[in-house]
Amino acid sequence: MGSPSLYAKSARGGQSPVGLVEHLVATAAAVRKLRRRVGTIVATSGMDDRLGVAAGGVFGRDGGVFWQVVEAAAVAHDLGKVADGFQDMLAGRTRGWGHRHELLSLGFLPAVVGDVRLRDWVASAVITHHRPLSAPPYSSGTSMAALYAGWSVADLRDELGPIDDAAVGYLCRWLRDTLADLDLDVAVAGDAGGGGGGGPVPAQTGAALVAAAHEEFARIQQRWEVPVDRATGLAAVLLQGALTLADHLSSAGGVLHERQPIGAGFPDLIAERFGGPGRIHAHQRECAGVGGHLLLRSPTGSGKTEAGLLWAAGQVTAIAAATGGTPRVFLTLPYLASINAMAARLGRLLGDRDLVGVAHSRAASYHLSNAAGSDDDADARRAAARKAVSQAAATRLFRQTVRVATPYQLLRAALAGPAHASILIDCASSVIVLDELHAYDATRLGYILASARLWEQLGCRVAVLSATLPTALAEQVGEALQRPVAMVVGPPGPPRHRIRLRQHQLTDPASIAEITASLRAGRSVLVVANNVAHAQALYAALAPVAREQSGEEDAAVLLHSRFRRGDRAGIEARLAARYASSVVPRQPGLVVATQVVEVSLDIDLDVLYTAAAPLEALLQRFGRVNRAGARPPADVVVCPPGYGPRRGGGPEEYADGVYQAGPVAAGLAILARHDGQPVDEAAATGWLDEIYASEWGQRWREEIARARRVFDRDFLTFHYPFAARDELDARFDELFDGTEAILIQDRDEYEAQLATEPGARPSAAGRLLGEEYLIPLPHWATALASYDKQLRVAVIDGDYDDEQGLLAVRPIRGTAVYQPGEVI
Length: 824
What we know:
Elements (H helix, E strand, L loop, with lengths): L6 E3 L8 E2 H19 L8 H5 L12 H11 L9 H8 L9 H5 L10 H12 L16 H5 L4 H8 L4 H17 L24 H18 L6 H23 L13 H9 L7 H7 L4 E5 L6 H20 L5 E4 L3 H15 L5 E4 L3 H7 L8 H19 L5 E4 L1 H5 L5 H11 L3 E5 L6 H16 L3 E6 L4 H10 L4 E5 L7 E5 L7 H12 L3 E5 L3 H19 L5 E4 L5 H15 L9 E5 L13 E5 L3 H8 L11 E6 L3 E3 L7 E3 L3 E2 H13 L10 H9 L2 H21 L10 H11 L2 E5 L3 H8 L9 H7 L4 E3 L8 E3 L4 E9 L3 E6 L14
Parallel strand pairs: 3-8, 3-9, 4-6, 4-7, 5-6, 7-8, 10-15, 11-13, 11-14, 12-13, 14-15, 19-22
Antiparallel strand pairs: 1-2, 16-17, 17-18, 19-20, 21-22, 22-23
């Protein structure tokens, strides 16, 4: 008989339906592309042993059996869509089938893959490419076991409905022939040698298919109901990730970049941009020569990023030679604004913005902000939003070989399962650059370091870059990684700052009077508070002075994290236009900010007034004045914070309600010994080492060690690789994600943006356009909001000012009250 009319996807968006065989062939092709991208995976190189195959068997010992299994699963994963009920659903004859095609797909495997050990792995990938195999009773999702465990064959036949015998027979023959044509070394039923091809395929009917699926499902459940060792669990999660990624690529028409621009030719590109090989600094050349993990301590303005990229280029060449793949390069930073700035910088360096992926929760916003055209043209804006959504989706499908991200995007691989295991396969045999690790608290840092150990097991090489890298942090990195870590120290720059300590707090009238005098002297003044309430109060007192002095509205600007996204983007653009280090002549004025000014913003002012904070944060704040060191040392005036407990937070004291008191007080004591002196950035490492040697530093080490153990135990063992991890997902979100809300008075405008076409239903592009109304809030602030089910967004009842941001929130439910001073 000829090929029956079987489909895998229905007609959507003006596209024709996708044939079942067509989709399976495309998924197998995607696996081959993924294999060329990833190459040999160290963590799966012993998979033949776990299959029980003797040394020197047909699978080899180079990890090739892993990709054999993935490709075999790819050509079988959707065969269960043969059921009449599923085909009727695709054709629109019924509203739904009510069952999972993955289960029925299992029934095709026993007739074609006779080696039970191999079939375990193929079947496990097939049954879990959409849903977990099992789940705890409190899981919010539905596992395959919850749906089908305990069913009899007769009940299953009745529920799944009719299945065309001729179609089943055709697909059995097609599967056997395809596996042979693809030269996959699978053991076919009835073949004594276990090789592919030859021999008749046992006759198949719909009834026999259901019986085989029932038996196979019970066997796979039994296979994974007991915990497995770490190596087997990791291989299983990688297998699941490879199949789900290939399936998504084939369904979405995704394209994987096949070239790594940060590779063999990259040093020449850097030399060209610097003006010749002689312009590459000694510490950058040293980084380029490191073969393995790297720690780089290098001050701001010394070419730290370029040094890290030169290191990455060398690792790409080495890993590619060892694995036969195309290593990906990940650059991670702690803040979205710094990620966006780095992505733009890399795009310019490589000469093609499309070569750089942006991987964070608001990546589409980054692409939209870079779109050309006028914001006043609504049609153009909608078109740009649609394109931005597509660009972000391409990065989620791992298109680019260079990506800038938060570490949390990589850590999400620990959640595994159909939704996250693809991240793990994409990380394998890659190069990971972690920038500014000091920005993370001890718990999150411990999680990142635990993940670094896993990345190493996956064949990755890791670099840590920082302008302020205390010895204690370097030691923590060395303990986390098993292989040696090379240390490179960049040269000290010229003195850029002079320490000036004050006895009064930043909000004290004496401080305001001193800042006022600096403004009246025609200087550009940066004021950094530790919390939003202080920043708003200082701005209210000082902005009139700055505007009176210069006569310009933009002479005074307030920046913190509690603005609408659209308003904050406008503020940052105004800051860059007036205070960027490249702006000549220099402009007087006032910038009042919180911690958000510490990263990414390329601004250069004359003098800094700041509340005391941890020394690493202060050094970052110092870097926003006299940025390049082209002028004599600029004054950086440090005021003591207020100390006290957080509301509801126990007896521990915090500086201005934000930072632990211990390191802040210790840093302030060190600065007091150098009051009136230029900051020696080389000596700053010794200052940090003194703080980390304190009692607080010992607690910091203990917390990192505890966090590493917890994250490794709870997230990275994979003892039950195909079980749901809902409880871990919730914990992860609480640790790493905040929340966002719109103001109740912005609801109508937000709703109007959701549909990219008049009268249309909300779309991804519409939600992107509506993001300009979102205000970031901490995770606990969900108690202050109500959830609008129609718009699918949290709503707060608050006071808001375009110039000052969020001023107050009246709780819609619960008893929590928002106080700006408690939130960074």
